[in-house]
Amino acid sequence: MNKSFTSLNTNVIFVDNYNQLSQKISSYGSNFLFVVDENTSKMVRPLPEPNVILKSGENYKNFRSIVKILKQAADHHLSRETIFIAFGGGVVCDLTAFASSVFMRGAKLTLIPTTLLSMVDASLGGKTGFDFNDSKNLIGSFYPADEVIICPDTLISLSDQEFKNGLAEVLKHALLSKDDKLYLTLVNNKEKIFQRDIETLNELIYLSLQVKNDFISKDPKETKNIRQALNLGHTFGHALETHTHFSAWSHGEAVAWGVGRAIETGVKLGITTPEFAYGVNKLFRYFNFDFNYRLDRSEWQDYQIQLLKDKKRNNQLINFVLLKGQGDFVLQNVDFELIKDVVLKKALY
Ligand SMILES: NC(=O)c1ccc[n+]([C@@H]2O[C@H](COP(=O)([O-])OP(=O)(O)OC[C@H]3O[C@@H](n4cnc5c(N)ncnc54)[C@H](O)[C@@H]3O)[C@@H](O)[C@H]2O)c1
What we know:
Layout: E1 4-7, E2 10-14, H1 18-26, E3 32-37, E4 51-54, H2 63-75, E5 83-88, H3 90-102, E6 108-113, H4 116-122, E7 130-132, E8 135-139, E9 147-150, H5 160-176, H6 181-188, H7 190-194, H8 198-218, H9 234-243, H10 251-268, H11 274-286, H12 300-308, E10 313-314, E11 317-325, E12 328-333, H13 336-343
Parallel strand pairs: 2-9, 3-4, 3-5, 5-6, 6-9
Antiparallel strand pairs: 1-2, 7-8, 10-11, 11-12
Helix pairs in contact: 2-3, 3-4, 4-5, 4-8, 5-6, 5-8, 5-10, 6-8, 9-10, 9-12, 10-11, 10-13
The structure holds nicotinamide-adenine-dinucleotide.
Nicotinamide-adenine-dinucleotide binds near residues 117, 155, 157 and 162.
């Protein structure tokens, strides 16, 4: 029996393999637009038509790619009943979802995420968008997909680095979960996870999505200070990514490091228990994340500038997600002296 559940009017369906996936795609008939990028276009043969092949990567998460999708939809005289199908990572999913949300004031939308990150995060929750004016996801809409199809078989071709990116979000979800299921699945199946055992990935993705669903269903448009919990580690991590010009740290590694900084901040403020912090440290190190890295003191000025660019900031104050313990978060403004303390190497004198 295939796993499935509903989240914000989205049907999430798990399929076992490529065969089942192509049967599912065939069941859509001919009224669709299939959106892929240069890499994921090679994963489906023959490529369903009509289709749009986008350039791959964050650099192409821009308005030109949106125009490319919309132009193809208009040229083929597609309608509001047309299903926009995204087959790709978070970039393809976010772009297709945005295009679908504005085409004839909203067409149908199916997401088939093909990276671990897009399966456990980008496909669910209705956030769509593209980068604009050097700001990530500056333009976007809330437009939950009608359907999300998860086919862990697609993960076999993913690079180790992209796989680790997604794993960081899974670990983050384990900390935010009210129960131990995801945490235990992680610690009991490390080898199988790295070997990309399909059954284990199936379970891991399903449990991870349950955690995300728990937050977004209570706060669909991020207006109630609940959904923000999913930003755990992201504020510290994103500033590290921009500070290092997106070269030294992958997104997942930066988020994992950010979780480490949030945990340490919580301990220093007496919010996080040292026992919990110890367990989190062990979990991230077990999955080979550099949890305790420190910046040189000379890097502070630029790191601080990057932090202040954070979208979640309110005037000069930045809201950080901190954890009291598993599944128990608080949003807290943190003093810059304390941030400095958890981010930088200790002074030698
Ligand atoms: N909407 C949301 O709620 C949400 C949440 C998290 C992240 N995001 C967005 O997701 C994006 C990042 O997504 P991503 O990490 O998937 O990046 P991505 O879409 O750029 O994919 C990473 C790389 O992997 C390739 N790829 C995809 N699937 C593959 C496969 N199965 N085998 C081999 N290669 C494959 C892609 O072509 C690309 O080169 C960011 O733009 C971020 O803003 C959105």
